[in-house]
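Collaborator request log, item 7. Partner lab (contact: R.S.) asked for a structural prediction of PH domain-containing protein to inform their binding assays.
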Amino acid sequence: MSATTSPTNTQPTRTLTNDEEAIPMEDTSEVTRLFVERLQAWKHAVAYLEDYISATEKAQHAHGKEYAHILKTVRDPLKEGHQFDQSLGGVAGMFENIRSNTQGISNHHYETAKTLKGTVLPLFERLHTELKHKTKELAKGAGKGSKTVDKARHTTQKHIEMLGQRTATFESHGGRMQAQEDPYVIQRGVMYRLNRQVQEENANRQDLISVQNSFAQFESHVLQEIQHGLGQFMQVVNTQCEQSKVMYGDMVGTAQRIPLDFEWNGFVRRNDGILIDPAAPARSVSNVQFPNQDHASTKPIIAGALERKSKLTRSYDTNYYVVTPAKFLHEFKSDDNFAKDPVPELSLYLPDCVIGACVGQKFNVKGKDVSKGKVGNTFSMNHELKFKAHTPQAASQWWEVIRKVAGQVTGEVPDASAPTSPVNSRDSPTVDGKPAPLQTDLPYRDEKGPVSATAGSATTAPGSATMAGSTPASAVPSGVPGQPGKY
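Returned to partner:
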């Protein structure tokens, strides 16, 4: 009987690169199916041995006449036989040896049949039951995780396709769209779902690595049980005639000469492109690329923290604000894409808004919150939002950016108790050389587009994103030097 050897840690060679796709083309259930098929192969191998012992026990009563029946139990090739090494010294060779020696057995006894049925056969039945439980455990664990990964990838793919549709709409319609269709918002939604997907992938990956690492030890146990069962079988038949003793001894010796890591190492060599390398790095969102990730419509014109005065507490709350190329002013709780789905708390379509004067760190914007879609926009009321920046320079930058795309600019001073006259500037409308009356209502909008609500006003249609004497929105300064779009 050969000495027992321990399995070697042969690592698979499949690795991941840093240049990754958002939705990998790999089949998440491929590894699980491979291990299920592997367990099926072992179950059938053990089933062959169970059939062999049972047939041998029956053959004790029928002597040589039943040996033809015993030979049939192992005559056919193993099911999933490609899972075993076909060279000598493995499981496939062990069964070939059993076939040849069974042919030579000529005599059995009734006492041998009783011992085989009560002692040897239960060893293989218990091993078969262990293999069945291992298959169920794999299906409920790694198999369920693969379905979760597929569901997360499907969700991410839907939002990536939505981003492609909205960026195409942005380019074809000049950026005029609903707030919830803003490519910037959708792009942040893609990042949120992609992060959830990567977490599910990494969790499933760890489950599969654990299963993969445990398989070598489990297969060693299976082989040990097979060797132990066949050893018991040898002791039973050893009392028979010398010829039968030699043949059965040869069968058992063949099985026990199989190194515990022989089949596993061959399995890894044949499937090194499928099995997971535990040393490979986990996926990272920072390395993932997806279509339209860097599209111009997803980059804010200016972004950063502003304070907005609450109507109830009259105190200022700090939030994260952005002005997007689609001419929306969005309010978010923070700039974190991963903590929760980054849906705007408030959205203003600036061409429909009125901006007052900038005094120090403060400025006001009047308009409708359009973050609720078409139905919400219809019943939404005008609100005057009072903002305060951290510095006068930052407030000036925000005011200048919003002024470029605002539907109307007035000289209304923030926190003033009574309306003041508009500031005379190149952006303030005049009539006969005198400042025009203060206009705080939103421009009227018909089916064909926005129309100025005051005759003789110096503002242009909101869709044009420019005013008399002003420059296009694309020329808006990007923010603090060295940090485009932020301060």
